[in-house]
Design a protein that fits this description.
11 strands, about 20% strand, about 350 residues, globular, about 40% helix, alpha/beta, Rossmann fold
Length: about 350
């Protein structure tokens, strides 16, 4: 793999931007799915290099942002229990629930621990047999193999005090939800390279054909994104609707078969609610029945949790690409990283966070 600097070379970026301008004859609206791509676009000002007619729209590609409010509140209920050690990735701790976040629970004495992988949580379970250890299993297809492995390994080793609070979501159904919405204005997609590294991109062919949109699997560095935009605009100008792979150094059409195998062994596909969007059919993963002993929702009483989104927050429209963060009246005022109304302001992949960090003054 080449050095990162080669994908941030300024002259190459300028040449690609000129190439995009040269082939552009009409206005086009392109959605980048991944929040990592969004942050690169805003951080490096890639959208400012493009012709005025090319608009980049930020999609629901931040796994923290789309984790439903109910899941956050369930996590808080578990973290408040004296018999539970609640483990999570760090970026979930500031995501607001209905009344508080996990960081507040930790400050109040809850045993909330930041881990870097589900393997860390499994180790904590082994070291604390008198406690019930719950890992917050969130994310797209990218984190699903590791979380599946944790449940598989726990069953294999007979670890009975370990469970997962699962809130996994799948990207292709979310893309279809955007395309089928009455609010849709997306004409092309930059697909998430890391998801496709795991799953490949076979699932995108039916979407491209059905909705007549080009889909370009794209990486995360400035040159990746500009090249992805170039490939997408070229298709749009030609009237094509194909699936192309810009991120060939990491992504293969069939994806990672070993990762897919462990996912299919442990998880079933199911309906999943997305924060700010609602339920999307076949858009989530749930533990199979044979792994129910490791399902926190079946181990603990978590029914009857009611949630309410802040009325001032327009994160639902931001996640669907209908609005930009700066169009929210709360942005940078009553909604800031230290006091977020919605998850996109606090997540490291959230669109609101990117705009606040890199373009707050503008």
């Amino acid at each position: 793999m080449k050095f990162v600097d080669e994908y941030r070379y300024a002259q190459d970026a300028k040449n690609l931007a000129k190439g995009i301008a040269k082939i552009t004859t009409k206005p086009w609206t392109i959605m980048e799915i991944c929040g990592g791509q969004t942050h690169s676009i805003i951080r490096f000002g890639l959208d400012t290099l493009l012709p005025k007619g090319i608009e980049l729209v930020h999609g629901p590609g931040c796994p923290v942002c789309v984790t439903p409010l109910e899941s956050i509140d369930k996590a808080i209920v578990l973290a408040l229990r004296d018999d539970v050690i609640f483990c999570s990735f760090g970026d979930m701790l500031r995501v607001p629930g209905s009344e508080k976040d996990l960081l507040t629970v930790k400050a109040q004495g809850g045993d909330v621990r930041i881990v870097y992988s589900p393997a860390d949580a499994l180790k904590i379970a082994k070291e604390n047999p008198s406690k019930k250890v719950v890992f917050f299993a969130i994310g797209f297809e990218t984190t699903a193999p590791g979380n599946a492995w944790a449940a598989y390994q726990a069953r294999k080793e007979g670890i009975t005090n370990f469970s997962l609070l699962v809130s996994h979501v799948l990207v292709p159904p979310a893309m279809e939800a955007v395309l089928s919405s009455s609010l849709n204005r997306i004409q092309g997609f930059l697909a998430a390279g890391h998801v496709c590294t795991i799953m490949g991109y076979d699932e995108y062919f039916p979407l491209a054909k059905k909705y007549k949109v080009p889909i370009v699997v794209t990486g995360f560095e400035p040159i990746d994104i500009l090249q992805g935009v170039y490939m997408c605009v070229k298709q749009l100008e030609q009237g094509s609707c194909e699936v192309e792979n810009q991120y060939a150094r990491s992504v293969h059409e069939g994806g990672n078969k070993s990762a897919q195998e462990i996912i299919s062994k442990v998880f079933d596909v199911a309906v999943r609610k997305w924060r700010g969007i609602g339920e999307i059919p076949k858009s989530g993963l749930v533990l199979k029945e044979e792994f129910s002993a490791f399902d926190a929702e079946k181990i603990f009483p978590l029914e009857g949790i009611e949630t309410h989104e802040p009325k001032e927050c327009i994160s639902a429209l931001v996640l669907q690409g209908v609005k930009k963060p700066y169009e929210c009246e709360a942005f940078g005022k009553i909604c800031r990283p230290e006091h977020p109304l919605g998850a996109p302001m606090v997540s490291t992949e959230g669109a609101c966070s990117a705009y606040y960090r890199y373009r707050k003054q503008k």
